[in-house]
Amino acid sequence: MDAPFSPLFGEFLGRMPEEMQAAVASAGTLMRYRDGATIQQRGDRKPGISVIAEGAVRMSATDAEGERSTYLVHGPGDAFGEMTLFLDIPRTLDAVAVGDTAIHEVSRAGFTQLLDTQPAIRDHLLVSLARQLSLALERLDDQRRLPANVRLAKALVDLAEPDGDHHIVRASQSALAEAIATSRVTTGKVLTELAKAGLVETAYRAVRIANLTALQDWIAARSLLTPLTVRN
Predict the structure, then answer these.
(1) Is the whole model's pTM more than 0.90, yes or no?
(2) Which residues are CB-neighbours of 58 under 8 A, at least 6 positions away?
(3) Does an H or E element contain 175, and which?
(4) What is the C-alpha to C-alpha distance for residues 229 and 223, in angstroms, rounded to an integer?
(5) Out of 22-26, 101-105, 136-140, 208-212, least confident range
(6) For residue 210, how many other CB atoms are within 10 A of its CB?
(7) Which tens digit of pLDDT belongs to each residue from 10-20?
(8) I need a labelling partner for 173 at 20 to 30 A (CA). Which of 17, 126, 134, 194 fits?
């Protein structure tokens, strides 16, 4: 049975008309995953694009010492695996379901056929890829000009997952330190600062955010430049 896309569309599907969204769904095979299930592993040969219909997906990687770093969390309407449509490369990150998750898996051949009937979808794919590049460049610039507390706050916003009336970031302090290229000690100090400001609560291998908007406003007030890329 087909799964309808969530009303909270992500970047890939966000501006598509309904008939194009339906075409994407029809071109793919619907796969369902329970919370915590592995969707893909780094190195998997899986040419195609994965489009989230329901739930969320945590993208991460494990280093040589076994420490896992979460890079981002995708939501409904977001896509991953786009690079494998064009390059003969494996999937580069691990992907795990956050909550019950449904994904339309569109193979490379299926996507090529989709372009024959929906050529305008190419524009949406280019926007998605361009946004990823823009965010990557923004993060590089953040490392150069922003202090650790603002970089960590931005990372928390990027990694936040809905958790009832709040949001949560499921990551250790070591993983967060790696995400912003700083020491674990510095990360701990920044988390303490944010907690004293009432913006976060720390827990075992997790950070709870009571008010995501308040954290975003805190970041905006301390950024040297207004962000050009709007995050959902």
Answers:
(1) no
(2) 70, 73, 95, 96, 97, 98, 161, 170
(3) helix 173-179
(4) 13
(5) 136-140
(6) 13
(7) 578 777 888 99
(8) 134
Instruction: Give pLDDT, residue 209.
Output: 96
C-alpha gyration radius of the chain: 18
First-to-last alpha carbon distance for the chain, in angstroms, is 29
CA 19 to chain centroid, in Å, comes to 25
Question: How many CB atoms within 10 Å of residue 143?
Answer: 12
SS3 209: strand
211 phi and psi angles, rounded to 5 deg: -140, 100
- Token pair, residue 56, equals 């969320």
* Nearest-10 Cα torsion for 176, 181, 186, 192: -30
Q: How many other C-beta atoms lie within 10 A of the C-beta of residue 79?
A: 24
CB 153 within 8 A of CB 220: no
User: Which tokens hold the place of 55?
Assistant: 């739930």
pLDDT, tens only, 161-198? 888 889 998 888 887 887 787 888 999 999 999 999 99
At 159 the pLDDT is 82
